[in-house]
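Listing S7. Sequence submitted for prediction.
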Amino acid sequence: MVTRRSAGILLFRRTPDGPEVLLGHMGGPFWAHRDAGAWSVPKGEYGDDETPWDAARREFQEELGLPAPAGAPLSLGEVVQSGGKHVTVWAVEGDLDPADVMPGTFTMEWPRGSGRTAEFPELDRAAWFGLDAARAVIVQAQAAFLARLADQV
């Protein structure tokens, strides 16, 4: 069995009320009417031909349509999501306006079993969250990254 691996960058900024993180709401029809558990660190899969850090930077660009931030990365380690995917994340301090996000797209059969394909945004929106608010909406396994970030900043 091949281990699926994914890498991403958790953009954060410091505010008087504490750190905020930028999360993306997963695109596509499955997530359209969900909030809790439907937000994620901008990330994506990579293979043996790419380092996790290079993949994280590439995926940030692909998922948000904006260049990866230039700041110093803080390693937040790895988690294993419920589907078995291993996710490695770095935090980078920076700022951006979610209105500037121009997400990439993916194609899938929709409706399932119809034989028709449709194109959907990888992320249908992005937003800044304080750490407590982020814990309420992020993919469950990724909440560990929020705790690790809080320990480092």
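Caption to Listing S7: primary sequence and predicted structure tokens for the chain studied. The helical segments are 52-64, 131-137, 143-152. The two ends are 37 Å apart (CA to CA).
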